[in-house]
Automatic annotation (TrEMBL):
Region (Disordered): 742-767
Entry-linked PROSITE patterns: 4FE4S_MOW_BIS_MGD
SMART domains xrefs: Molybdop_Fe4S4
Pfam families: Molybdop_Fe4S4, Molybdopterin, Molydop_binding
Record's keyword terms, sorted: 4Fe-4S, Iron, Iron-sulfur, Metal-binding, Oxidoreductase
Domain 4Fe-4S Mo/W bis-MGD-type residues, every copy: 2-58
Gene3D superfamilies associated with the record: 2.40.40.20, 3.40.50.740, ADC-like domains, Dimethylsulfoxide Reductase, domain 2
Entry protein name: Molybdopterin oxidoreductase family protein
InterPro entries to which the protein is assigned, alphabetical: Asp_de-COase-like_dom_sf, MoPterin_dinucl-bd_dom, Mopterin_OxRdtase, Mopterin_OxRdtase_4Fe-4S_dom, Prok_molybdopt-oxidoreductase
Length: 767
């Protein structure tokens, strides 16, 4: 029997609506949903491969439990029994901080990942929280926390209305956008140009996005904060600062001007390897545009001055009056946002409320750096116990975080590890219990995270396209049961977790004077929630209390789950609107332009003016048909140009004696890898590029296709010691490496036509 079903695509941040073809109980195809209110039919090759991703035969079908050293298929009851038996005694004996929680990227792409980790963390009471945020966007959270008092108040560029986009360290033609949810990002960039707008791209590589730009600046990696500081200085010097409507909401302008003294284009140009005249032009163009937005991503975050770069992006938007105005950068308002409170001073944003045990890294947003996970497991100190058990949810840090070799060994040494993951991969192979969620077609979907970062306010929800198969468990239920198992409530009804959250949320809401349910009876309100299950009732609750909600009757036309279900292609909530000062939660109630931790970090940036790395610098790259570490097992998405090769410039290749297609040895502080060279002038001289998420050659995994073309783990080149100090974010770009031809040395035998790739750790042991 054939039919179709709608499903929001979970494979990147663009959140396109898909129409799935379903035949005989399985997904057989996917196309863009033309009626989707946001994506309007757009689809990319990954979304088009949804069926292959969904049907991958290597997805685990049942839980696995380790017995006598081996992972064996088990029932759900056996699996959760094993979790409860192992974790509770550890917590009781050594304390909650000895249980580490590791949350990976796909948590922002599942409902389970949005709804349950907060309960898990709070329920366990552990401070050992590590997430993909500290190999990604933590600097932006910290800069937003400091500027606006809210780590989640991240302005997004108004792509559809801006007249000028300055795009830094992002490649949306491959990534489809990040911290800027915009289905058909490429089309929106073309539309910008078609309406007479301009696009400038700053990237050490001439990416597909850069090729679309009116101007491409091939900066030396890691120096964007210097360039942005110099742009701000030009605005001050040339009297181009114009706050406009922002003026009453901003404090610290004079202090900022003083603090940036000396970061002139002439001073920073040699470090950035960008002409001073170009930097001045960038600043003048930004100031002259009718509307403009500065937007920066991975290449600006995963660098030594990531927080300062993130801060300076917003500073430039503010100095040119582009923050919070149409065509500039605005704060989205999602349907599940908390009821907006009246504007006024807040509690501000605290950093470093506690520190990691070994290297004393400050927490940021309640998290410790993922780079420090291995040492928190394998290093003893006098003050406190090491991590003895780890819970990973949708995380593959052995490939995604610096120094996978060390982490690999550390995970193998744990007393206990549980992984919620559909695959047995480089990380989950160490687990004692693996809890596999069903494929995406059998999960409901709502983008809690990405709707708060979208270029248009809208709301969509899709129920599972297919029912759960026998012996399967919804990921929401897996997570609820996991919460119960590790908090001493093993065996209780999983809906208890949802009821607890609903009860607490309503109890708080009825106390808030600005809430539409102020003063009402929380139990009576809870009884009015609709939905087939706990997660749906929680969605209903958030929608009804949210900024567009029905307020449980206060605004009868407002949103409810029922109303959303009646609009399967979503509900458009309009373009982004100016919102200041309401989103501000700083102590002053204003945008605090020069927060103290930022001022304290500026001397480090000043030192960087004198730095001129002599050797090669490594940067990453993404490919349209890939996604971090987990999509190399899909034959339809691998091959062609999606390969793990080292891009290097012809001039560097000639100097090093490297020929295209031959193996090269790349050496970094954490280890070395041997990988085929791809000589291309798409990278600037002095820069080499290797994609991440590869290195699928470890034993004990079940990724049959990926293992056939494993690639190498770029993160083995890092030793985990390079961090942005304010955010704890790993430095993954602009990393010094040495490159040499490998075809003459003792590296593994390789033919020029089909070089094999291999990775070795710092000790030289084969991976
Ligand atoms: N050198 C370098 N390293 C990088 C980066 C880089 O640019 N360069 N990028 C960094 C960034 S931005 C990120 S976000 C991280 C990502 O790194 P991770 O956080 O490790 O995320 P992924 O590799 O996307 O996937 C992690 C796991 O999620 C599992 N998974 C997939 N779907 C689901 C699901 O529905 N439910 C559950 N429970 N699990 C699922 C996969 O099987 C996989 O094991 O990598 C970082 N690492
Ligand atoms: N197809 C695909 N899509 C994805 C992913 C994927 O793996 N594949 N991953 C998803 C995830 S988790 C994320 S976080 C997003 C990331 O989304 P993007 O940030 O758009 O991702 P990248 O393609 O890594 O782009 C980063 C760019 O920064 C450049 N760069 C490196 N160092 C520097 C520097 O010092 N300065 C400047 N100015 N540029 C620099 C790199 O050359 C690269 O082109 O993509 C998401 N979407
Ligand atoms: S752009 Fe992203 S959300 Fe859209 S179809 Fe492709 S992978 Fe899915
Ligand atoms: Mo990411």
């Amino acid at each position: 029997m054939s039919r179709t079903a709608l499903r929001i695509c979970p494979l990147c941040e663009a959140t396109c609506g898909l129409t799935l073809s379903i035949d005989d109980g399985r997904v057989t195809g996917a196309r863009g949903d033309r009626d989707d209110v946001f994506s309007k039919g757009f689809i990319c090759p990954k979304g088009a491969a949804f069926a292959a991703v969904d049907n991958d035969p290597d997805r685990l079908r049942t839980p696995l439990v380790r017995r006598d050293g081996e992972l064996r298929e088990a029932t759900w009851d056996e699996a959760f029994d094993a979790v409860a038996e192992a974790i509770r005694p550890l917590v009781e004996r050594y304390g909650p901080h000895t249980v580490g929680i590791v949350l990976g990227n796909p948590n922002v792409h599942t409902m389970a990942g949005a709804l349950y980790p907060p309960v898990l963390i709070a329920g366990l009471g552990t401070r050992s929280l590590f997430t993909a945020s500290t190999v990604d966007q933590m600097p932006k959270h910290v800069s937003s926390g400091l500027l606006y008092g809210d780590a989640y108040a991240i302005p997004v560029p108004d792509l559809d209305r801006t007249g000028h986009l300055l795009l830094i360290g992002a490649n949306p033609l491959e990534s489809n956008g990040s911290l800027c949810t915009a289905p058909d990002f490429p089309g929106r960039l073309r539309a910008l140009k078609a309406r007479g707008g301009t696009l400038t791209v700053i990237d050490p590589r001439r990416t597909r996005t850069a090729r679309l730009a009116d101007r491409h600046v091939a900066i030396r990696p890691g120096t964007d904060a210097l360039l942005l500081a110099a742009m701000a200085t030009v605005l001050f010097e040339e009297d181009l600062v114009e706050l406009g409507d922002l003026a009453p909401h901003v404090q610290g302008l004079d202090e900022l001007r003083t603090a940036l003294h000396g970061f002139t284009p002439d001073a920073v140009a040699p470090a950035c390897d960008v002409e001073p005249g170009t930097i001045r032009t960038l600043a003048r163009e930004l100031a002259a545009a009718d509307s403009a937005a500065v937007y920066a991503r991975i290449g600006s975050c995963t660098v030594p001055h990531g927080t300062l770069a993130g801060w300076l992006v917003d500073v430039l938007n503010i100095l040119t009056g582009n923050l919070d105005r149409p065509g500039g950068a605005l704060f989205p308002q999602a349907a599940t946002d908390r009821t907006p409170r009246p504007a006024g001073p807040g509690h501000g944003f605290a950093l470093g409320r506690w520190h990691s045990r070994v290297s004393r890294h400050p927490e940021a947003k309640g998290e410790l750096p993922l780079s420090a996970l291995a040492e928190e497991i394998d290093t003893a100190t006098d003050d406190g116990e090491p991590i003895r058990a780890v819970i990973t949810v949708a995380a593959n840090p052995v490939l995604s975080a610096p120094d996978g070799e060390r982490l690999d060994k550390a995970l193998a040494s744990l007393d206990f590890m549980v992984s919620v993951d559909p695959y047995l991969n480089e990380t989950s192979r160490h687990a004692h219990v693996v809890l596999p969620p069903p494929p995406p077609s059998r999960s409901p979907h709502h983008d809690f995270a990405f709707n708060t970062l979208a270029v248009r306010n809208q709301v969509r929800y899709t129920r599972p396209a297919l029912p759960l198969e026998a012996d399967r468990m919804a990921e929401t239920e897996i997570m609820a049961r996991l919460v119960l198992a590790v908090t001493g409530q093993h065996g209780a009804d999983p809906s208890a977790v949802d009821d607890l959250v609903i009860g607490r949320t309503l109890a708080r809401a009825v106390r808030e004077p600005h809430s539409p349910v102020h003063g009402q009876d929380p139990r009576a309100l809870a009884a009015r929630l609709t939905g087939d299950n706990g997660p749906e009732r929680r969605l209903d609750l958030m929608l009804r209390l949210g900024p567009y909600g029905d307020g449980f009757g206060a605004r009868p036309d407002g949103l409810t789950l029922e109303k959303l279900l009646a609009h399967p292609h979503g509900i458009d909530l309009g373009p982004l609107r100016p919102r200041l000062p309401q989103p501000l939660k700083t102590v002053s109630g204003k945008v605090e332009l020069l927060p103290e931790p930022i001022a304290g970090d500026l001397p480090r940036l000043r030192q960087a003016i004198a730095e001129r790395p002599a050797g090669l610098l490594l940067v990453g790259r993404r490919h349209l048909r890939s996604n971090n570490s987990w999509m190399h097992n899909i034959p339809a998405l691998t091959g062609g140009t999606n390969r793990c090769t080292l891009h290097l410039h012809p001039a560097d290749a000639e100097r090093l004696g490297v020929r295209d297609g031959t193996p090269v040895r790349v050496k970094g502080a954490g280890g070395e890898v041997t990988v085929p060279a791809e000589v291309t002038d798409a990278v600037r001289p002095g820069v080499v590029s290797l994609p991440h998420g590869w290195g699928h050659d470890r034993p004990g995994t079940r990724l049959r296709h990926a293992a056939g073309n494993p690639g190498v783990n770029v993160n083995q080149l890092l030793d985990g010691s390079l961090l942005d100090p304010l955010s704890g974010n790993a430095v993954l770009n602009g990393v010094p490496v040495e490159v040499s031809p490998a075809d003459t040395g003792p590296a593994p035998a390789a033919t020029a036509a089909a070089p094999t790739a291999s990775a070795t750790g710092p000790s030289g042991t084969g991976a």
